Amino acid sequence: MKIFSRLYRQVMMWAVHRHAPVYLSMTSFVESIFWPVPVDVMLAPMALAKPERAWRYAAMATVFSVLGAAFGYLLGYALWEPLVEPFINAMGYQDKMQVAQQWFSEWGVWVIFIASFTPIPYKVFTVTAGLLQMAFLPFILISLIGRGLRFFLVAGLMVWGGVRMERKLIQYIDLLGWLCVAAAVVAYLLLRH
C-alpha cells in the first residue's frame, strides 16, 4: 500500500505553502504541551523544500517549542488538579506520568535534555517539571539546548542531503513508513505494562 508516498507528496505541498512558517510555529508550541505529532514531520520537508530558510525554520521551531514547554510547565505547576490531572486520567496517561516522575527522581534535570532531544514524549516532561516544581530557569535553558540541537540537526540533515536525500526518501518512503508504524506498535506493547 502506497499510503506514505501520497502523504509525503501532500506534506511537501504544505511545506511550501505561504503560511507554513505559522503552522510550524503553532505545531512547535502545542507539541510541547499535548500535540502527539512531532515537529520534525513539518520541519524536515520545509527545510528540504526551502534549504535557504532551513536555519530560520529550525530557530522558529526551537523558540516556539520552548515557549510551549514554558506553558506546559505552568499548567503542571499551577493547574494540575483542576485541569491537567483530569485530562491525564481521561487519556489513560497515569502510567506515563508515574514513569516521568520516577525518571525525574533518578536523573533530575538531565531528563529534560533527554526528553527534549530524543523522540520521548517531551510534553509529559514539561508538565511534570511544573508539577514537581523544578527550577524554572534550568528547565528553560536545558529545553532550549535540547530542542535547538534536535531541530538544527534535522534542518542540517535536510540541507546537507538535499535533492539526493529526497530521491532516496521517495524511493523508500512507504517501507520506512510501515517500519515506523511497526516500531510504534512494538513500543506501545512494551511500554503499556
TrEMBL record:
Pfam families: VTT_dom. GO terms for cellular component: plasma membrane. Residues 58-157 form the VTT domain. The chain crosses the membrane at residues 20-37, 57-80, 101-122, 134-160, 172-191. Keywords: Membrane, Transmembrane, Transmembrane helix. PANTHER family: ALKALINE PHOSPHATASE LIKE PROTEIN (PTHR42709), DEDA FAMILY PROTEIN (PTHR42709:SF11). This is VTT domain-containing protein. It comes from Zobellella denitrificans.
